[in-house]
Design a protein that fits this description.
The chain is α/β, with parallel strands linked by helices. Helices cover 42% and strands 19% of the residues. The protein has a 5-stranded parallel beta sheet with strand order 3-2-1-4-5, with helices on both faces. The radius of gyration is 15 Å and the shape is globular. The structure holds adenosine-5'-diphosphate. The site of adenosine-5'-diphosphate has 17 residues, from helix 1 and strand 4.
């Protein structure tokens, strides 16, 4: 079975992430969207909340599931016998970070490949960081995140 693992923070999921997931579906038997939980990062949403938002976003899409993992991504792939990590590439600024990570993962697990997918032209400028900033100041998020994510952002930021 060909399994693609798409790891990330997804804090929160945006239409850019969704675009990558939709494009992966026809290429693999199963797509696992992996919510990473790194101790070095601070998140607006907890891992369970990020997982719920992902699941609500691709409700009805075949062969996609979400999981949470706190360890090394390559160890997760070994656990489920997957061979491909997928990451999205927006612009040159993403490149060095993705290249270093892909090479480090190659060093840790030579049997695992990293596949990079270019962001679609109408998604390359979208980031979770910008989404949170816009939400904080009451900006318009139409077309940038699913409606239910927008609702969660408003709720979360009000009670914070
Ligand atoms: P991380 O903190 O691991 O970078 P993100 O949730 O920010 O997690 O992103 C997960 C992956 O999705 C990364 O490879 C990132 O480059 C990619 N990505 C983020 N936003 C977009 C977008 N708008 N279009 C395509 N890929 C994206």
């Amino acid at each position: 079975m060909r399994i693609a693992v798409y790891p990330g923070s997804f804090d929160p999921i945006t239409v850019g992430h969704l675009d990558i997931i939709r494009r992966l579906i026809p290429l693999y038997d199963e797509v696992v969207v992996l919510v990473s939980h790194s101790t070095n990062k601070s998140y607006l949403f907890g891992a369970e909340e990020r997982k719920e938002m992902l699941e609500e976003s691709f409700h009805g899409m075949p062969n996609v599931r979400v999981d949470i993992y706190e360890g090394l991504t390559v160890d997760y792939l070994k656990k489920i016998n997957a061979k491909v990590i997928v990451r999205g590439l927006r612009a040159v600024v993403d490149f060095e970070y993705e290249m270093a990570m892909a090479n480090m993962n190659k060093k840790l697990a030579p049997e695992i490949e990293t596949a990079l997918i270019f962001a679609s032209p109408d998604c390359y400028y979208i980031s979770s960081r910008a989404i949170k900033e816009i939400a904080r100041f009451g900006g318009n998020l139409d077309g940038l995140v699913p409606a239910h994510v927008h609702q969660r952002l408003l709720y979360k930021l009000q009670i914070k």
